[in-house]
Automatic annotation (TrEMBL):
Keywords: Cell membrane, Membrane, Transmembrane, Transmembrane helix
This protein's name: SURF1-like protein
Family note: Belongs to the SURF1 family.
Species lineage: Bacteria, Bacillati, Actinomycetota, Actinomycetes, Micromonosporales
Start and end residues of each stretch annotated as Disordered: 230-269
Source organism per UniProt: Dactylosporangium roseum
């Protein structure tokens, strides 16, 4: 029964994961046609000085479609290495977009393939637009365990996009989120949202609860069988066995005066 209880709990855990993933998929679908919302209406602005980040974004903002206007700062551009798009590994291009109030948000302008010369060669990155630019895209939460950008052959690179780790290298405060552009310029490939496999978790829910039901049924069957005692057929078999043993014992006693050929022994005179 303890095993069944654990299986039921595992089923509820997978059910919770199903609802989480289904919610993400709903936001991805809704964002495809939703009217973009101004960024500051969803994520709190940074209020500290240069090199700081704003408040943490709400937990349900991922993939929300937003709109933000400012000018790019190409001198602080960062390449995010080891990013896969359409089965190919390359770089995502992160460029700060500075708003009119002096704050900034990191914009993922798109993906570029690696240079033909290998990982140490600089990829061909289209320049960011100049002047005021309005970016429409999807909000993304900070990635975990990100580090400070490192210089690699004259360009800044990181492995994960973590605004709190990037902020100290910038001369302005930034939002604690980043935006993936819906329509990157020529030469860049859009980083499209990938839906979660919620049906897999739904299958795990059914699997764990089916196992729990089988465990309870098996326990009940064995307990009922134990309470009823041995079946009548088993009792008859036991009685036949005992009778056979008794007959065998009687046969041994009757054969004391008979030799192996069936002839009685004669007592010596």
């Amino acid at each position: 029964m303890a095993a069944a209880a654990v299986m039921v709990l595992l089923g509820f855990w997978q059910l919770d994961r199903y609802h989480q993933r289904a919610s993400i998929n709903e936001r991805i679908s809704a964002g495809a046609t939703a009217t973009p919302v101004p960024l500051p209406e969803i994520v709190g602005k940074p209020t500290q000085g240069p090199g700081s980040v704003g408040p943490a974004p709400p937990g349900d903002i991922e993939w929300t479609r937003v709109r933000v206007t400012g000018h790019y700062d190409p001198t602080r551009e960062i390449l995010v290495r080891g990013r896969t798009v359409d089965g190919r590994v390359g770089f995502e291009v992160i460029t700060p977009l500075v708003l009119s109030d002096g704050t900034a948000v990191l914009v993922d302008r798109g993906w570029v393939p690696p240079a033909p010369g290998g990982a140490l060669a600089a990829p061909a990155v289209p320049p960011a637009p100049t002047g005021d630019t309005t970016v429409v895209g999807r909000l993304r939460p900070p990635e975990s365990r990100g580090g400070v950008p490192q210089e690699v052959n004259g360009r800044s690179e990181i492995r994960r996009i973590t605004p709190a780790a990037i902020a100290p290298t910038l001369p302005y405060p930034i939002f604690d989120t980043y935006v993936t552009a819906d329509e990157p310029p020529a030469g860049l490939t859009a980083v499209r949202p990938a839906k979660e496999n919620a049906l897999q978790n739904a299958g795990y829910v059914l699997q764990w609860w089916l196992f729990a039901a089988l465990a309870v049924f098996g326990f009940a069957y064995l307990a009922r069988r134990e309470a009823r005692g041995p079946a009548s057929g088993d009792l008859l078999a036991d009685e036949d066995g005992e009778k056979g043993e008794a007959d065998g014992a009687d046969g041994d006693g009757d054969g004391d005066g008979v030799n192996s050929g069936g002839v009685p022994h004669r007592a010596p005179r």
